[in-house]
Amino acid sequence: MIFPDANMLAINDKxxxxxxxxxxxxxxIQELADQINQEYADRKxxxxxxxxxxxxxxxxxxxxxxxxxxxxxxxxxxxxxxxxTGQLRQILGLSETITGRDLIVIEDIVDTGLxxxxxxxxxxxxxxxxxAIATLLFKPTALKKSIDLHYVGFEIENRFVLGYGLDYDGIxxxxxxxxxxxx
Length: 183
Ligand code: 5GP
Ligand code: MG
Ligand code: MG
Hints:
This protein is α/β, with parallel strands linked by helices. The protein is built from 3 helices and 13 strands. The protein has helices at 22-39, 55-63, 114-124; strands spanning 2-5, 8-11, 14-20, 46-51, 70-77, 79-80, 83-84, 90-92, 102-110, 130-138, 151-155, 161-162, 178-181.
């Protein structure tokens, strides 16, 4: 892996270039947090972070929440390199009871929507009071499921992105900007 300069990231044979700048991400996250602070003013939501990709987004979002809230983590994986397989390979389950709780599920990106639908189906089977989805990124043209996304950071075109938590084959999560695969 090489980072020749701030304007390009090369991983194996792939080149990634800046797509969404760190400052724009932070500004948008503050807006989403403001909205959540208002809408959950009289509730104590349980934030369910979908690992691995959402960990940085979840941390920055939570730092801007001013309401009482709890956090927990689940782990899923459905991607091989740059294609969604549509099959959840693993889910590291929740240890706490979610029955009757107001859940806010935090995702890095909704692509086909298969992952978030499967996650929500599994959560719903334990009868939470409500489920809202917060995703940093959304690719509307890749969507294969009908799904209600309550908080969306950025709608993006159907291109492969990395950085700010998102990886390419495990690499690249540690950039402040979101980068896109060069065409
Ligand atoms: P879906 O099930 O909606 O097709 O895919 C959801 C998961 O695939 C996301 O949570 C994310 O981990 C991964 N994913 C989808 N699109 C991208 C992308 O453009 N870049 C990266 N790095 N991961 C993606
Ligand atoms: Mg994800
Ligand atoms: Mg991934």
